[in-house]
Design a protein that fits this description.
The complex is a heterodimer. By secondary structure, chain A is of the alpha/beta class. Chain A folds into 2 domains: about 25-130, Rossmann fold; about 140-185, no CATH class. In chain A, about 20% of the residues lie in helices and about 30% in strands. In chain A, helix 3 (about 80-95) runs parallel beside helix 4. The two termini of chain A are about 15 Å apart. Classes of the chains: A alpha/beta, B alpha/beta. At the A-B interface, loops of A face loops of B. Bound molecules: FE2/S2 (inorganic) cluster. FE2/S2 (inorganic) cluster binds near residues 264 and 271 of chain B.
């Protein structure tokens, strides 16, 4: 991780804010992303229809499902896994029309899974509001065996598929929804720098 | 900027006001390929003075034997269109720039809605050729004043079939933008080219209905407005020039032998931007490129369409 280093491909995340004018709003969150939804619902509500999709993931530190059920009086769907949320989202996107605004919150890996679906429906990533919640863990793509390891917390880690020690770069691929990981000891096998938890 | 020498191979009077020109390369070579929505800038020598006007390429981008442009006669303008109508005939030679596309179709689009007013139909003719080839979903909405002003309607009917929707004003048919923009599927992109009030109305409706800017595309090339003459000091070139009332600043610089950058010559692309070092009066910004804040700050100007009313104007060029 480079300090104060800016790279064009590195995505920026914001706080969710209702976007108006709009014809509808679709909010998608997973795990700790629940807190971003609660913050959103503390803002003045837009008058257009709102749908909330929440995936209750084991990474959530609070029981957001229960709180959301009390707070969100609009259409709320609680899913018990990321997969079921993504399948649900895919269905809903078919009925959405232009003018619907999209909001996504959760870990980076979760958000980019959601963005794959919205993108496939013709929504551009820049037009989706994104809030990173709970963790800085990164999804990392092994450039050698082409596997993505999710929730990487350390600067160097063993690839979940090929076992190579990968250094996590800041270079991010939107298409893959992951940072690039390159073998750290390619030149001098076994020479692995100090491993630190830089993405808690 | 690289130039193509072309010869007029055919001229067709399409409506009372519109002529269609077929251009081929003078040396008989094929012309460069282009993408739907591109334009070229045509240079015309009118009584010793060079005029340059942008025109959309209308033919199929597949066809590199010839380029097709159409010109609407604008009586009260600075003469470019009148020259094209009265002074250009089969066999005339012209110089054009390589095609540039400032109005391209979004590759991410799932559906494309094309909206044209009057002569604004021209950029869509090449876009439709692209859309047909790609098999993409689209609708073409074409508004014009009355039946005799509907240029290229037959050709469009052949190209678009039932995707073509005509809106003839004299028959009380106006495009209802609110209906058009409501309930469109996600991934729809809209493109508009036509008179300013129409373009503005559509942009406003899209905004009101929550369409993201990334899905709304417009092309509006302005003709440089006529104004009072003024003097400009060009600091880097170390000269002082006079901008006559019927010339743009860009044209006056070209006349003085400079070669400033440009793409659209209509205040849309930003390519001609120059820095204003000093101005003791008012800048008259006529472009669509600078934001209101940038216009107010007075540090930049688009010499292709903007003017000034002042005693002293210093530009960093
Ligand atoms: S040339 Fe495009 S804004 Fe001036």
């Amino acid at each position: 991780m480079q300090r104060g280093y800016w790279i064009r491909s590195k995505p920026l995340y914001d706080s969710l804010v209702w976007q108006t004018p709009a014809v509808a709003h679709l909010v998608v969150a997973g795990g700790e992303g629940g807190i971003a939804v609660l913050k959103l619902f503390q803002q003045m509500y837009p008058k257009e229809p709102i749908q909330v999709l929440y995936a209750d993931l084991p990474t959530a530190k609070k029981n957001y499902s229960d709180i959301l059920q009390q707070i969100v009086l609009e259409e709320l769907d609680i899913c018990d896994s990321e997969e079921s949320l993504l399948a649900n989202l895919e269905q809903r996107l078919k009925d959405c029309t232009m003018g619907t605004h999209f909001y996504v919150a959760g870990s980076e890996a979760f958000m980019w899974q959601v963005l794959q679906k919205t993108r496939a429906a013709g929504v551009q990533d820049v037009d989706v509001q994104k809030e990173l919640c709970g963790t800085l863990a990164r999804p990392v793509y092994c450039v050698h065996c082409k596997t993505i390891t999710r929730d990487v917390h350390h600067n160097v880690f063993p690839c979940s598929n090929c076992g190579r020690h990968l250094f996590v770069r800041d270079h991010f691929s939107r298409r893959l929804g992951a940072y690039m990981g390159v073998m750290v000891d390619a030149e001098e096998p076994g020479n692995i720098p100090q491993i630190e938890e830089v993405y808690p | 900027m690289s130039i193509l020498n072309v010869k007029v191979a055919d001229v067709e009077q399409v409506t009372d006001m519109v002529k269609h020109f077929t251009l081929v390369q003078e040396n008989g070579q094929p012309l460069p390929r282009f993408s739907g929505g591109s334009h070229v800038v045509v240079s015309m020598n009118i009584n010793g003075r060079i005029h340059r006007n942008p025109y959309s390429l209308m033919g199929s981008p597949e066809n590199t034997d010839s380029y097709h442009i159409s010109v609407r006669r604008q009586e009260n303008s600075r003469g470019g269109s009148v020259f094209m109508h009265d002074g250009v005939e089969v066999g005339s030679t012209l110089q054009i720039t390589y095609p540039v596309n400032l109005f391209s179709l979004s590759k991410l689009g799932k559906k494309h809605i094309l909206v044209a007013g009057g002569i604004g139909i021209t950029p869509f003719m090449s876009q439709i050729a692209d859309l047909n080839r790609l098999g993409d979903d689209y609708e073409m909405h074409y508004a014009f004043r009355s039946a005799e002003h509907g240029a290229f309607v037959e050709q469009l009917q052949q190209m678009c079939g039932d995707r073509l929707h005509l809106h003839i004003e004299s028959e009380g048919q106006r495009i209802n933008f609110h209906n058009l923009l409501s309930n469109q599927p996600l991934g729809t992109h809209i493109y508009v080219c036509g008179p300013e009030p129409m373009v503005n109305a559509l942009l406003l409706t899209a905004k009101d209905l929550g369409w993201p800017k990334t899905h709304v595309h417009s092309e509006q090339f302005l003709a440089p407005p006529i104004g009072d003459s003024f003097r400009v000091q060009l600091v880097k070139s170390n000269m002082e020039i006079e901008v006559p009332g019927d010339m743009s600043m860009l044209e006056a610089m070209e006349e003085a032998g400079l070669e400033p950058d440009f793409l659209c010559r209509g205040g849309a692309c930003g390519r001609c931007e120059v820095e204003v070092l000093e101005c003791d009066g008012a800048l008259m910004h006529n472009d669509h490129y600078l934001s209101d804040a940038e216009k107010a700050s007075g540090n930049k100007i688009m010499p292709c369409v903007s003017r000034a009313r002042c005693q002293k104007l210093l530009l960093n060029i």
